[in-house]
Write a structure and sequence with these properties.
The complex is a heterodimer. Chain A is built from no helices and 11 strands. Chain A is mostly beta strands. Classes of the chains: A mainly beta, B mainly beta.
């Protein structure tokens, strides 16, 4: 069974940093592109970042470019999101998601999410 | 990149069919056949229901179907059931920033 388990969320002040992790199991992690998607409470889903299976392709949404860094450790089956210079508007539930078999990017497995709250 | 446009809410009675629309532009939804639909029960992980416009992943009920015409995609749920009550999101591949979601539609089963 595919499982994605996020961790690392919490409450931080504006300008601080946080690192999220996503532990993957039940599939060959190193073969899949992975994504981070976030959801502000009460709002819709927003794509944040992707990383290719071997880590050689990385892209970000404009809203996080230059502040967030996605990475992965295929030996540990873990995806990461380093979030620096956090802003109040980064408050959201952060989901990791596995890229599916579609022709573009679809997300065929998701974690339960981890809540990040940025507040002074 | 603006979000795709979905109705805020739709409703239907058990057994009926409903359709949720998702409108984009030629730069996203209209330019790619990579439209997906997700079901999200609050507090749970989102679930992929449709990918590549009209394909159902294994295990997804055939009551769910997808289509696209021009810059608008649609998700149709037939034979509505109480368990279908959830939020539904469309998404599309784009050139930049890669993926764009719709604002979400709350489905209420009356």
């Amino acid at each position: 069974e595919v499982q994605l388990v996020e961790s690392g969320g919490g409450i931080v002040q504006p300008g601080e940093s946080l690192r999220l992790s996503c532990a993957a199991s039940g599939f060959t992690f190193s073969r899949y592109w992975m994504h981070w998607v976030r959801q502000v409470p009460g709002k819709g889903l927003v794509w944040v970042s992707l990383i290719k299976s071997d880590g050689t392709t990385i892209t970000y949404a404009d809203s996080v470019k230059g502040r967030f860094t996605i990475s992965r450790d295929n030996a540990k089956n873990t995806l990461y999101l380093q979030m620096n210079s956090l802003r109040v508007e980064d408050t959201a539930v952060y989901y990791c998601a596995r890229d599916g078999v579609g022709s573009g990017h679809d997300f065929d497995s998701w974690g339960q999410g981890t809540l990040v709250t940025v507040s002074s | 990149q603006s979000a795709l446009t979905q109705p805020a809410s739709v409703s239907g009675s058990p057994g009926q069919s409903i359709t949720i629309s998702c409108t984009g532009t030629s730069s996203d939804l209209g330019g790619f056949n990579s439209v997906s639909w997700y079901q999200h029960h609050p507090g749970r992980a989102p679930k992929l229901m449709i990918y590549d416009v009209s394909n159902r992943p294994s295990g997804v009920s055939n009551r769910f179907s997808g289509s696209k015409s021009g810059n608008t995609a649609s998700l149709t749920i037939s034979g509505l059931q109480a368990e279908d009550e959830a939020d539904y999101y469309c998404s599309s591949h784009t050139s930049i920033p890669e993926v764009v979601f719709g604002g979400g539609t709350k489905l209420t089963v009356l």
